[in-house]
Specification:
about 280 residues; two-stranded antiparallel sheet; about 35% helix; 5-stranded antiparallel β-sheet; single chain; alpha+beta; 9 strands; binds ligand A0H
């Protein structure tokens, strides 16, 4: 049987414009020459990866993402490397970053209906991952892209691991999305993704992450105690769901099946889901 893991080389692609710059490299629009198939090519510099001893995490990201197949998870078709760079061949997300889409809304936030649909798509993607003992650990707005039909695509599995993990990861970047158990360096499991789902839901509804504060120490204190201040325009149902996700105790956080059947989600997810039951 022909091995579908073709050995790709850079010459197989026409490289287009840069889609964006990331921490280790950039993402380019690209087209595979023979099939004319459009992809996103993520280019990472080996020097920077080794400097940050990120190669183990990169291997894991590639291993995990090449094997996941779900409509709300950005596909990785393959990868290759040359002496200086590692290239990841990824599904192109034609509508770009969710973060930019949110900032372009006139009040900088999404409606309850749009947010509920995103939360539902994320929950089904996470259910798929958790069934395969994969936790993402880095669900946040800037890791989410939009497909051709405006559907959510989880990208960047750089922090995903197989459960259970107590990897004391060097916390780079913002604390905003991390649950209490991770900022305390305790053992953590897939319930970390449920916490991040709560953070994401709040951020989509208000334009700001729930624990954002001027001082790092203040953010730390508010995460540790799950102190959430809801703006008045948040509906009672949305508040109910978020309060059941942002729980300090991982075991108290709502399970993914319960999230998918929460009244607020059922109320807002696209009409096809709540057809009138045939009499
Ligand atoms: C750490 S990183 O390097 O991975 N992140 C930096 C970054 C920053 C910005 C974007 C993108 C990006 C990545 N994409 C991937 Cl991967 C697949 N499709 C896209 C993808 N698609 C995309 C599609 C359309 C647009 N347009 C739409 C029209 O308006 C201008 C932007 C942008 C990006 N973008 C990435």
């Amino acid at each position: 049987a022909n091995d579908d893991r073709q050995k790709w080389v850079l010459q197989d692609f026409d490289i287009g414009r840069a889609l964006g710059k990331g921490k280790f490299g950039s993402v380019y629009l690209a087209r595979e020459k023979k099939s004319k198939y459009i992809v996103a090519l993520k280019v990472l510099f080996k020097s920077q990866i080794f400097e940050a001893n990120f190669e183990y995490q990169l291997k894991r990201e590639i291993e995990i993402q090449t094997h996941l197949r779900h409509p709300n998870i950005l596909k990785m078709y393959g990868y290759f490397h040359d002496d200086k760079r590692v290239y990841m061949i990824l599904e192109f997300a034609p509508k770009g970053e969710l973060f930019k889409e949110m900032k372009s809304q006139e009040n900088g936030r999404f409606s309850e209906e749009r947010t509920a649909n995103y939360v539902s798509q994320l929950a089904s993607a996470l259910q798929y991952c958790h069934e395969r003992n994969v936790i993402h650990r880095d669900i946040k707005l800037e890791n989410l892209l939009l497909g051709a039909k405006g559907e959510l695509k989880i990208a960047d599995f750089g922090w995903s691991v197989h459960t259970p993990s107590s990897k004391r990861n060097t916390l780079c970047g913002t604390l905003d999305y991390l649950p209490p158990e991770m900022i305390l360096g305790l053992e953590h499991d897939e319930k970390v993704d449920i916490w991040s789902l709560g953070v994401l839901c709040f951020e989509c509804l208000t334009g700001k992450p729930p624990f954002e504060a001027a001082e790092y120490a203040e953010t730390y204190r508010r995460i540790k105690n799950a102190i959430v201040i809801y703006p008045p325009y948040i509906s009672a149902l949305a508040r109910d769901l978020i309060s059941k996700l942002l729980r300090v105790q991982p075991s108290e956080r709502l399970s993914l099946p319960k999230i998918l059947t929460h009244e607020w989600i059922i109320k807002h997810t696209s009409s096809k889901n709540n057809e009138p039951i045939a009499a």
